UniProtKB/TrEMBL annotation:
Subcellular location: Membrane
Taxon lineage: Eukaryota, Rhodophyta, Bangiophyceae, Galdieriales, Galdieriaceae
Membrane-protein topology: Multi-pass membrane protein
Enzyme class at the top of the EC tree: hydrolase
UniProt keyword annotations, A-Z: ATP-binding, Hydrolase, Magnesium, Membrane, Metal-binding, Nucleotide-binding, Translocase, Transmembrane, Transmembrane helix
Protein name (Swiss-Prot/TrEMBL): Calcium-transporting P-type ATPase
Matches recorded under InterPro entries: ATPase_P-typ_TM_dom_sf, P-type_TPase_V
The keyword ATP-binding is annotated on this UniProt entry: yes
Domain of life: Eukaryota
Any one cellular-component term (Gene Ontology): membrane
GO MF annotation terms: ATP binding; ATPase-coupled monoatomic cation transmembrane transporter activity; hydrolase activity; metal ion binding; P-type transmembrane transporter activity
SUPFAM superfamilies (UniProt xref): Calcium ATPase, transmembrane domain M
Transmembrane segments: 54-74, 80-96, 117-140, 160-183, 195-212, 232-250
The EC number(s) this enzyme carries: 3.6.3.8
Amino acid sequence: MQQESGEDEVPLVKLGDASIASPFTSKNMTIDSCLSIVRQGRCTLATTMQMYQIMALNCLVSAYSLSVLLLQGVKFGDKQMSTTGFLFAIVFFLISRSKPLKKLSKERPPSSIFSAYMFTSMMGQFMIHTAALVLATYFGKKQLPVDFVVNVDDTFSPNIVNTMVFLVSTAQQVAIFAINYRGYPFMEGLFQRRSLWISLAGTFVAVILAAAEVNLELNEALELVKFPNREIRMVTLQLIVWDTVVAFILDRIAYRLLRE
């Protein structure tokens, strides 16, 4: 009798059941909500993968700068680190606010950072950026005095090597964000995100102006020294441009050949 009476009772709704069901509840008579879930899911996956790739590249380049280059006497000043850290924190925030496109693409976003395309692109970009930093260090050291002695324990003191490496590495970080932002066909393109591309373009232009020594007061504020001659200034500009262009071409070739 107790079992029969228990079966007749209406099951009670537990606390939290409505909260779990509400995101998947639609009052419409169509299945448009399913399409919205798929679109947003793909946008979220693409955003997550690109964030992984961007952070991985930034960490690899930073690890090289803070280990190998540090042993060669290359250091960054507090103003330099604070400025770049603040700017790229804003860029990370803007990237995280991506919105999906209204039209669902037939193409699927990469499901892993170790997919053929993403891994090849990431390692290729890392080698290109590392080569640019090595060349910047090499050409910068040739401008140092003959009696210059590297002391890792010394406090930061601006020199030509620090100036070249800082400008090249900052441009590399901008390139990493711009090149690895996925955009189409999963979410809004880079140029549809006005605040994002203006932030990236403004930072890149500022690096070019600093390398061209258009405003020496800006360079002094960033703890950058004056280039000893025109040749080394042109070398720095060429490293910035070629590093960005070659990394962009490599990523697009990998995307064309290895995308899923």
